[in-house]
Amino acid sequence: MDNLTHSLAGAVLGQMGLKKKTGLAMPALIIGANLPDIDAACFFWLDGTQHLGFRRGITHGPIAMVLLPVILCALLIAYDAWQSKRGKRPENRLPIHRGWLLALAFIGTLSHPALDWLNNYGVRFLEPFSSQWFYGDTMFIIDLWIWLALGLGMFVSLRREKKQHIRWYRPALISGVAVLSYISVNMMITADAVSRTENEISQSVDRNQIKQIVASPVPFIFWHREILLGDPNNYYQASYSLFDKGRVLDDSQPIEISKHAPPILDLESLRKDNPDLDAFLFWSRMPYHGVISENGEQYGVVGDARFTDPRAAGRFRVKIKLEKDVQFVAK
């Protein structure tokens, strides 16, 4: 998910009452909730699409889930001691309880991959022990409804706390429960979208011929899903709505890189000498490709069916200059 969502999640956890357990509880929760995204530093040394093969991996895996909270806790304890030594420690800050501070650093950090799993981008929970991608297909990467629920819960809770209301934490607790319920509903919507699509397919073709069915959430309209199905270079796109009981596949359209049937490139051979393509194929869940001509030169273009929107496709696409002896494979 986006970093505002991660930050709000950590803040609401603190506002539920956890921030009263120890000094620097809120920084432990909020920083911890964003800490696995330190892998974004890879943009300083990786070019093109190579970041796709690095992000949401090692810093989201089990070793990082142990080390990052411990490092964060140690830094916060050192910061508190440094402020105390200089006489700059705020008087109203609670004493540091090391056990609670470490526990909250773990809670904040663990919330990050849990939220990242919800969208269809993917996360590698087991890296470096396994590079398997996991997908929740539940929420769009930026969800305004979650922003509103968590933001409102924080705002009302802080106002109540300022007025010394005895149950100041309750609005934050309610917003947290509401978001968990909202996520659960979206899980059921995705499951229904996939189930209806499978039922329709079974009436016309062998289900085994369809390698993948993905129900991708869309922005804002949480009861809709973009259905993607098929196998490499033969993907179809359809739409689903919870409130529309018509056939999902009636409006399905092929996803093509051009209007003509593209040649099938030997991507496995091409990726050996192309770090961008290698990283892209490692990350891609629904790869497809085609051949285009520009200024008398041939180029292979490799994309992912999940990201065909023109506003996003440029960041999720690899363009490869093809030599005259380029290899094709049989369809």
Note down, in words, how this protein is organized.
By secondary structure, the chain is of the alpha+beta class. The protein is built from 9 helices and 7 strands; from the N terminus they run ααααααββββααββαβ. The chain has helices at 3-15, 25-34, 62-86, 98-116, 144-162, 170-202, 267-270, 275-283, 310-313; strands at residues 212-217, 224-231, 234-241, 253-254, 287-294, 297-304, 317-321. The strands form 2 sheets. A 4-stranded antiparallel beta sheet has the order 1-2-3-4, covered by helices on one side. A 3-stranded antiparallel beta sheet has the order 5-6-7, covered by helices on one side. A hairpin with a 2-residue loop joins strand 2 and strand 3. Helix 1 runs antiparallel to helix 2 and helix 3 (62-86) packs across helix 4. The protein is globular. The relative contact order is 0.11. The model has no long low-confidence stretch (mean pLDDT 89).
Main sheet strand line-up: 1-2-3-4
Strand content: 5-15%
Low-confidence stretches: none
Helical fraction equals: 40-55%
Radius of gyration: 24 Å
Question: DSSP helix count?
Answer: 9
Number of strands: 7
Multimeric status of the protein: single chain
Order of helices and strands: HHHHHHEEEEHHEEHE
Indicate the structural class.
alpha+beta
What is the approximate shape? globular
Could you give a short account of the major beta sheet?
A: 4 strands, antiparallel
Query: What's the end-to-end separation, in Å?
Result: 37 Å
